[in-house]
Write a sequence for this structure.
């Protein structure tokens, strides 16, 4: 079984520093089930490839029979374990590339924290599931997926389709993230493990799956398969994921949110903002809308009252917020016709989600300022380059206007969870750049009464494709 990792980063040989394996040497690690060997079939400044071959000892596997959780004796002899990429490969990655997976590099720490162009090939990889399972697992993480089905035996085509494939992934990601993705998803695709799955597997999953698993649209599928569908373990894992995804102090966050609303209440800014966004969406003629980062569902509530919007989807990363949105919308009390128009789902702003595709418009209302600045490129890719709706409406605070609010310190953000707040010029630079890079035009406007010196309290960009 073979795993290769390639890069065209300049110089590409920096891959050796990140993997902590010198390109001139052959690196070997003995494992309980065989050995892993890593070498470099190519190592130039233009392109560098590290290849890891896993040699599993089939006789050693048979001798392990009888241990708790191991397969039947028949399965020991009739098995693909010595030949196909499986949980053995995940173990080999964690043992041979543990430092790289942790994101540490003595010589290139800045590079270890940088997203690089990486290409991965896995063969033969068992892909057990429907035809789209590879895309569903890897596309949200930013990879382009290419797979080639391998025959069971070229001499016997009548034996039927094979689950085995050569899979190639291309993406611009941190090397540590790539390794954790592979560690978790290889056994998920194979849907088997070579060892007993107990409570300690929950810790492994959460250690390697954070934070990307929190917002992955196939989170349930991943957790169930990784834990071999053991209901008690799956329940504990899902509860722990929900706890980690929620704010540490939900009550404190509500107090902070209320503080922001109190700040803006004298000018009725929230009502003005919602009404303006609904008006902008109506003006586009859109019939289907995603409220991305819908929070408690205030915009969804208004959209549902407009017959023009026949398909409405709310997406938020917070389970607690979605529960409040569900209560606000009273989804269980809606008529069947109304219920068909609206849905709320858990998801992220920075991971590709096929559920966003096919909508006329996407709204991001007071959302982007909650995203780390270095993840704005991911958000742009998700919304403008992948989902590609005809219209996108974005609102965000105008930092200059903060000077107008009573009892607001000059350098203080309106909400503790804001990662930034832009001036009018900063917002214009970002909006025009996004539009130019993705084939949109943008009209920038304000919401709320504008101050003569500091402008409107909220900025709005309406993007059209």
């Amino acid at each position: 079984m073979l795993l290769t990792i390639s890069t065209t980063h300049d110089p590409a040989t920096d891959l050796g520093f990140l993997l902590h394996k010198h390109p001139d040497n052959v690196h070997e690690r003995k494992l309980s089930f065989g050995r892993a060997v890593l070498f470099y079939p190519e190592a130039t400044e233009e392109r560098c490839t590290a290849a890891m071959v896993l040699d599993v000892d089939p006789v050693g596997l048979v001798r392990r029979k009888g241990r708790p959780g191991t397969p039947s004796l028949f399965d020991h002899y009739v098995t693909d374990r010595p030949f196909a990429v499986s949980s053995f490969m995940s173990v080999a990655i964690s043992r041979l590339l543990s430092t790289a997976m942790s994101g540490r590099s003595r010589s290139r720490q800045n590079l270890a924290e940088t997203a690089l162009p990486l290409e991965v090939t896995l063969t033969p990889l068992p892909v057990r599931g429907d035809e789209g399972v590879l895309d569903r697992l890897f596309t949200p993480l930013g990879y382009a997926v290419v797979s080639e089905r391998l025959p069971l035996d070229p001499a016997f085509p009548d034996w039927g389709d094979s689950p085995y494939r050569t899979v190639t992934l291309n993406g611009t990601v941190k090397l540590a993230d790539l390794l954790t993705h592979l560690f978790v998803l290889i056994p998920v695709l194979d849907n088997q493990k070579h060892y007993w799955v107990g409570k300690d597997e929950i810790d492994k999953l959460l250690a390697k799956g954070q934070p990307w698993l929190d917002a992955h649209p196939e989170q349930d599928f991943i957790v169930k398969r990784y834990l071999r569908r053991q209901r008690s373990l799956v329940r504990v894992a899902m509860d722990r994921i929900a706890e980690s995804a929620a704010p540490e102090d939900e009550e404190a966050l509500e107090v902070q949110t209320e503080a922001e609303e109190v700040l803006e209440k004298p000018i009725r800014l929230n009502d003005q903002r919602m009404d303006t966004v609904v008006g902008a969406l109506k003006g586009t003629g859109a019939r289907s809308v995603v409220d991305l980062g819908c929070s408690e569902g205030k915009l969804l509530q208004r959209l549902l009252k407009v017959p023009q919007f026949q398909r409405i989807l709310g997406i938020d990363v917070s389970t607690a917020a979605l529960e409040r949105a569900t209560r606000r919308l009273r989804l269980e009390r809606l008529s069947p016709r109304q219920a068909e128009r609206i849905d709320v789902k858990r998801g992220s702003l920075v991971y590709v989600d096929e559920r966003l595709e096919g909508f006329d418009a996407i709204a991001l209302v007071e959302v982007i300022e909650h995203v780390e600045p270095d993840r704005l490129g991911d958000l742009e890719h998700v919304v403008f380059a992948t989902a590609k709706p005809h219209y996108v409406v974005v609102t965000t605070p105008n930092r200059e206007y903060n000077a107008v609010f009573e009892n607001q310190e000059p350098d203080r953000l309106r909400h503790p969870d804001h990662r930034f707040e832009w001036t009018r010029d900063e917002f214009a630079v970002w909006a025009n750049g996004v539009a130019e890079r993705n084939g949109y035009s943008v009209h920038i406007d304000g919401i709320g009464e504008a101050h003569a010196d500091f402008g409107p309290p909220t900025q709005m960009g309406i993007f059209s494709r």
Observations:
- The first helix runs from residue 14 to 19.
- The domain at 2-196 is CATH 3.30.1610.20 (c-terminal autoproteolytic domain of nucleoporin nup98).
- The CA atoms of residues 22 and 243 lie 41 Å apart.
- The longest strand covers residues 116-126.
